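Structure first, sequence second, as always.
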């Protein structure tokens, strides 16, 4: 699989590395080489590219809670962030880009 480009800095992001953000309802996605690059991207207005989830199973579950505020989320209308780490895909779900950015600012899961 070809490397993608970070939506913020343009660095190459290998398929088994980096972060992918998705907005399933709009079939939009963005790619990040590192979590920190998501913050300026979100603040500057979150420019998405067209594209669906690589792994549709990630939104198969019927109930999600926002990783930032704990609110229940609509399976069709929320934002998903997937960390690619080798073969692992670690997904977090958010109300929207604003909560995704707050979460990333705080260091994500690894704060
Ligand atoms: Zn980057
Ligand atoms: Zn939230």
């Amino acid at each position: 699989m070809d490397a993608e480009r970070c939506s913020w800095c343009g660095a190459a992001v290998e398929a088994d590395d980096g972060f992918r953000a998705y907005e399933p309802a709009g079939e939009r996605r963005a790619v990040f080489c590192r979590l920190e690059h998501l913050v300026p991207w979100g603040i500057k207005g979150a420019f998405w590219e067209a594209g669906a989830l690589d792994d549709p199973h990630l939104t198969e579950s019927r109930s999600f809670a926002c990783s930032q505020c704990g609110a229940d989320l609509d399976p069709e209308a929320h934002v998903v962030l997937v960390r690619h780490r080798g073969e692992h895909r670690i997904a977090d779900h958010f109300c929207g880009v604003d909560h995704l950015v707050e979460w990333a600012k705080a260091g994500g899961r690894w704060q």
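Margin note: Residues 66, 68-69, 71, 94-95, 99 surround zinc ion (ligand 2) (CB under 6 Å).
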